[in-house]
């Protein structure tokens, strides 16, 4: 009975018949939601993962091969991988968020601003352009080294090297305290 229903669902989905999606949801929905919940440990997120997975099934049903796996096995892999991808995405996003509350960058106050430091941008222009671009991205646009690497389409190691050399060149122009201010700012 189950095998006949599975074939019927697959046939309807291949024909892009919405009845197939309805049967699929009725027959496998609760179990697939359970799989998503087991991975995400969050009911709302699990529901989102289920919905996203069903859309993938709808769009990719033609890649299903009944000779390689039963329908449930194929569905299980899709939902599990979607849930894992979503968790990774959330974790990556959380890791990249700036924690302003724990940062001391904004706590300089008026006393922390020294008039000699105000012309850093002017002196930055005296550097080689390849160093200017990296320092501009890191200090004036507030990018992390990784973000600068992606935005400037250059390897992370190159960004780090150009930062180091650029700061060394600025040190020649300024006294060490300015460079320390910039390094604290990083």
How many H/I helical runs? 9
CATH class of the largest domain: Mainly Alpha
Question: Could you describe the largest sheet, including whether it forms a barrel?
Answer: none
Query: Could you tell me the radius of gyration in angstroms?
Result: 27 Å
Q: Please tell me the CATH architecture of the largest domain by its name.
A: Orthogonal Bundle
Mean pLDDT: 80
Name the CATH superfamily classification of the largest domain.
RNA polymerase sigma factor, region 2, helix turn helix motif
Number of domains: 2
Question: What class would the helix/strand composition place it in?
Answer: mainly alpha
Q: How many extended strands?
A: 0
Amino-to-carboxy terminus distance: 64 Å
The CATH topology of the largest domain = Rna Polymerase Sigma Factor, Chain: A
Low-confidence stretches: 103-116, 176-181
Question: What percentage of amino acids are in beta strands?
Answer: under 5%
Please give the share of residues in helix: over 70%
Shape: rod-shaped
Please characterize this protein's 3D structure.
The chain is an all-alpha fold and 186 residues long. Helices cover 71% and strands 0% of the residues. It has nine helices and no strands.
